[in-house]
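Thread: Modeling a multi-component assembly for a lab meeting

Hi all, long-time lurker, first post. My supervisor asked me to bring a structural picture of a complex we are working on to next week's group meeting, and I have zero experience with this. I have the sequence lines for every component (522 residues in total). Could someone generate the structure of the whole assembly? Inputs are pasted exactly as I received them:
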Amino acid sequence: MGFAKYQEDIVSRWVADNRSKAAPRRHQRQAPIAATAATSNAVNSGQAEATHQKEKPVSKLKEFTMSSARPLPVIVLADISGSMGTEGKIDALNDAVAEMVSTFSEEEDNSAEIHVSVLTFGKGGAALHKPLQPAHKTTWEPMSAAGRTPMGEAFALAQQMIEDKSIISSRAYRPTLVLVSDGVPTDDWQGPLQNLLASERASKAARFAMGIGAEADNKTLAAFLASDESRVFEAHEAREIRKFFRWVTMSVTARSRSAAPNSVVAIEPVDLDELEF
Amino acid sequence: MLRSTYSFGASVVGPLHQREQRPNEDAWLRSAGSYGSLVVVCDGMGSRPEARRGAKAACLAAREAVSRWSRVQGAPLSYLAHLVELLWRLRIYPVDPGDAATTCLLALACPDGAWVLGGVGDGLAIAKTGSNLTIVVGQRGEDFGNETLGLGVSKGSGSWKLVTLPASVEDRVAVLATDGIADDLVPEKINDFCDWLVVDFQNLKPADRWRQLMMELKDWPTPNHLDDKTLAVLRTTATSQGPSS
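Re: Modeling a multi-component assembly
Sure thing. I ran the full set together rather than chain by chain. Output:
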């Protein structure tokens, strides 16, 4: 016993260890038994590394492996209809998203690399304002408000993006969808939302929603969340938009730092002014 | 025709488990018997309390299942999948299967020259016959990273992907790997990765081969990787050019 050997796989070693514990030998001259095969492997290979360090060849593995951490995609669905141009809402939204992107870009050495995309819906329908890319490579360009509220188109575009494995690979962690709106959808939104929620990939996304002002259609936003455990964040004034995005930022960064970035970290949207980054 | 079969593998604890002072929750096994040569790689699911136990039990269950299954000529592959699942459940009993959930990938080189390859769950199970690459496990489908089926969480043998590769006069190699490796491989480079494991390791002595592979897995190049990493290779050559272990 003692150290793992090249002939052994870690299962036969484990079995041998258990047998040894069941019937210990009286005269054991060897080194103390390592607690686990993993530990002993580490010890043995550590010695091996020391003896072979001088002649360590350059590995070819880099040629076959990814050069970036697994992505954690965040997709913002932003209402830029004409009504968002009033009471400073679009300016507050621009500032809040820019701050979120900036915070994400400063996150380094985490389990996951945060990627951000922004889809807008307003004049001319739904559009890709920012393609999905690492936050640290994203240069924010402010959105401007005009037109109606084609939310259904935005749902369809988000679904299309999530289902496209050339955009979000299977290596990525579950994406996060963030929906922001201050009004009632002006297109057929129910069909596209049902498709989104029925999509095997898109339905796995973590979802956040914020209704801005008294005119926001919170029932539609609640239907987007489709969960009894989640609630629509209601922003009654422009400065609360920033609070919402700080909550989203906190939740996403907690995931990217966690050991299991696929799990949605439950952070309650309380005391949002006290959140530190 | 004179044929030479050899297998090797290694497993290292990932940075996450090192940080949390948890043991390796992957397991692998190489074995030979009347059934031929076998390698098995299992990845205990990280969030499960008995993941380590589940992975080790799955390797042993796979060996036992292969031994029994191979005694009945022409037995369906689905029987092998059923056997692994049942024997695994017996080995972990009374632990709840959900608490010990694990993936299970295997490659078996039968005495008649045919191979069986595949398993349940994510990771990589590929074979290269001559220049022809067969990927049985390696494409995630609709899943995202770290989502998988496995023993204890899937619904029966329907979740298994197992194929038989007919006997061939050409050299054949199978590579099994847990998702800690598979998810970081560039999909277009899997063929080259397979070649590298053959060319760079075939002439090493078994001890050096293991040492070299351990070193490669410990120095995994993808930034911020977390998972335990386990890899096993099974190779048959048409001549005696390969190592004989």
